[in-house]
Amino acid sequence: MSKRKKRVIDTAYLTKVAVLSAIAYVLYAFAAFPIFPVFPFNQLDLDFSFVPGLLGGFSLGPSAAIVIETIKHLIKMLTNGSNTFYVGDLSNFIVGISFLLPASLYYRKNRTFKGAILSLVIGISIEAVLSCLSNYFVMCPLYGQFAPVILESDVRVLFSFAYGLAFNLIKSVSSSVIVVLIYKRLSPILKLDGQKIKEMRVYGTTVTHTAEETEALGIRLAKRLKGGEKIILDGDLGAGKTTFTKGLAKGLGITDTVLSPTFVISKSYGGDNLTLNHLDMYRLENEGETETLGIDDMLSDNKAVTVVEWNKLNDLKGRVINVKIEYTGETERKLTVTKRDEK
Ligand code: ADP
Ligand code: MG
Q1: Beta 275-280 vs 304-309: how paired, if at all?
Q2: Counting atoms of ligand 1 from 1, which one is nearest the CA of 210?
Q3: Sign of CA dihedral 226, 232, 237, 240
Q4: CB of 235 shorter than 6 A to ligand 1
Q5: What is the C-alpha separation between 72 and 49, in angstroms, rounded?
Q6: Among 208, 219, 243, which residue has the most ligand 1 atoms within 8 Å of its CB, making it the best to mutate?
Q7: Residue 4 has pLDDT above 90, yes or no
Q8: Which of 46, 181, 252, 310 could potentially form a cystine with 271 if both were Cys, beta carbons 3.0 to 4.6 Å apart?
Q9: Does residue 310 contact residue 235 with C-beta atoms inside 8 Å?
Q10: In which element (H, E) is residue 28 found?
Q11: CB neighbours (10 Å) of residue 235?
């Protein structure tokens, strides 16, 4: 990776992580409500501070979730101190990571609404197990140093498997509910794997896991076009040819909605610098028709790029880019982009 590219990634990534960490800290330190007022459980507060970690984990990757959760705790410890000698903070940190990490790892490969729900269920389940273990074996002995009552075996069991567990689950479940409620609104961001898109290369083979990623590859190809290119899209019905073309259009600065031109054969859209001609040759009967339909002029226009679905022309001249899209799973596509120069 070149130095320049790396710097761009780091700045955008760091800014987002910093903002999300700050919000997490504010929610954690200032928007917490006591839920168990009775000693020794009176340190148990409800807060929604997993929301930024989840959003970061979903949109920026598992490492972002860990960084956000860590910074949230570090700022809290440095500025607010602790009235549990940091035992509560340590517990919250372990439990938080055991929730956020599995959730964002699962969502990374399942970037749909269903995937989001499942990732939260998986995260909460793993958290539940780890919460009990960490409460019983780590937190109780530590808490016991200054609240000996917790070392009495029935209190210890009650704390670990009832109060402590319930407390941790209430927090992660309530943050999850909020993420589910705002998911639809944020899905364009969440469905994009920011890290992956930045590292995606236009030419060669790319496996995408959402329509948004396929669109993103189209956007990136568009940024490299100079005019005069013919882009041949090859893929079965439902592969993602129109989705890819939508990306090309966005990348060229076109705001109109791009639809499959099956019944009109061709459609043109004006972009910032280049025109996008979208052709569907499925209903084209013979090569001779291209002249009467104006297709020949489109193909030779150096101020335009022409995207062709169901290409029927054998002798395309100039810069030709082939995009092969293969359906490899319900939401997985394998895209292979190659270019050639025809004399
Ligand atoms: P085509 O034009 O090749 O017939 P479309 O782009 O119209 O295909 O449709 C592709 C469909 O597949 C869309 O409904 C899109 O949301 C869905 N889809 C799911 N996953 C992907 C993916 N990774 N890439 C592209 N499309 C995807
Ligand atoms: Mg189509």
Answers
A1: parallel
A2: 23
A3: negative
A4: yes
A5: 9
A6: 243
A7: no
A8: 252
A9: no
A10: helix 3-30
A11: 19
Amino acid at the residue 172: S
pLDDT of residue 149: 85
Amino acid at position 297, single letter: D
Going by pLDDT thresholds of 50, 70 and 90, the confidence category of residue 42 is low
Residue 269, strand partner residues: 276
329 lines ligand 1 (CB under 6 A): no
- C-alpha separations of 24 from 48, 70, 251 in Å: 8, 10, 34
* Helix, coil or strand: residue 309: strand
Pair of tokens at residue 168: 């941790």
What DSSP designation does 257 have? P
Which residues is 205 bridged to in the sheet? 336
pLDDT (0 to 100) of residue 36: 64
- Cβ of 156 closer than 6 Å to ligand 1, yes or no, is no
Give the helix/strand (H/E) hosting 218.
helix 211-222
Measured between alpha carbons, how far is 122 from 101 in angstroms, rounded to an integer?
10
Residue 31, token pair as written in the block: 């928007």
Q: 236 vs 91, 92, 113, 338, CA distance in Å? A: 52, 50, 25, 18
Measured CA to CA in angstroms, residue 139 lies from 41, 84, 86 at distances of 12, 11, 11
Structure tokens that stand for 291 in this block: 């002249």
pLDDT tens across 80-114, in order? Answer: 776 666 777 888 899 999 999 999 999 988 888 99
Q: Which of 106, 2, 8 is nearest to 61 (CA)?
A: 106
DSSP run (H or E) holding 268: strand 266-270
